[in-house]
Amino acid sequence: MVSVLLAACSTGSGSTTTAPEVTTTLAETTTTAGSTSSTEPPVQCPAAPYELTTLPSGVGEGILDPDTIPPDVWTSIGGTHTTFWGRPDGTVAIALIRGTLPAIDWPGDKGEVFVDGTRAAVGPHPDGTWVMGWFEEPRARCDLYTMVFYPPVTPPEVESTIEGMVRVAG
């Protein structure tokens, strides 16, 4: 098990990439005999205020159509805002989700990292993903973040990507 520990995020050098974004809005509906009620979907969070200046080789080169990416356990939370980075083969490499902490807790050891001076937890999952979760004050729903690295990915690639995160206005 490789422990991922970072002292702080660095501004790094390199190019900044833009990535397709997708919004997930789910409404809940409850039906009872003779009556129907519905719950409004949560207010949509804006995009996460981060740029990734360092990406694993090939990531960010793929063209992704966010409308064709099926939601998964990480990206299917209503009211969240997800930004995807793809690979040349069109698969998702990284998802940055604003509006929720990781949907599943880490089954094993996790390391501590810092994102914009804020403590975060990161670690591997049995499905091959690496997941990072953190929150910012005042801990409102849109102050919660999850970042998912989809396989294949190595611990050094996860670490360098996290080190290359730069907070921007938003």
Describe the structure.
With 170 residues, this protein is mainly beta. It is 5% helix and 34% strand. It is built from 1 helix and 11 strands, in the order ββββββββββαβ. It has one helix at residues 155-163, and strands spanning 21-24, 28-32, 35-39, 50-52, 80-86, 92-98, 111-115, 118-124, 130-135, 144-149, 165-167. A 7-stranded antiparallel β-sheet has the order 1-5-6-10-9-8-7, with helices on one face. A two-stranded antiparallel ribbon has the order 2-3. It has a two-stranded antiparallel sheet with strand order 4-11. Strand 8 and strand 9 form a beta hairpin. The protein is globular.
In terms of topology, how is this protein built?
Layout: E1 21-24, E2 28-32, E3 35-39, E4 50-52, E5 80-86, E6 92-98, E7 111-115, E8 118-124, E9 130-135, E10 144-149, H1 155-163, E11 165-167
Antiparallel strand pairs: 1-5, 2-3, 4-11, 5-6, 6-10, 7-8, 8-9, 9-10
Order of helices and strands: EEEEEEEEEEHE
Q: What level of helicity do the residues show?
A: under 10%
The number of helical elements comes to 1
Strand content: 25-35%
Radius of gyration: 17 Å
Dominant shape: globular
Which structural class fits the helix and strand makeup?
mainly beta
- Poorly predicted sequence stretches spanning 5 or more consecutive residues: 1-17, 23-33
Strand order, sheet with most strands: 1-5-6-10-9-8-7
Major sheet description: 7 strands, antiparallel
Q: Tell me the total number of β-strands.
A: 11
Count up the domains: 1
Measured distance between first and last alpha carbons: 35 Å
Mean pLDDT: 82
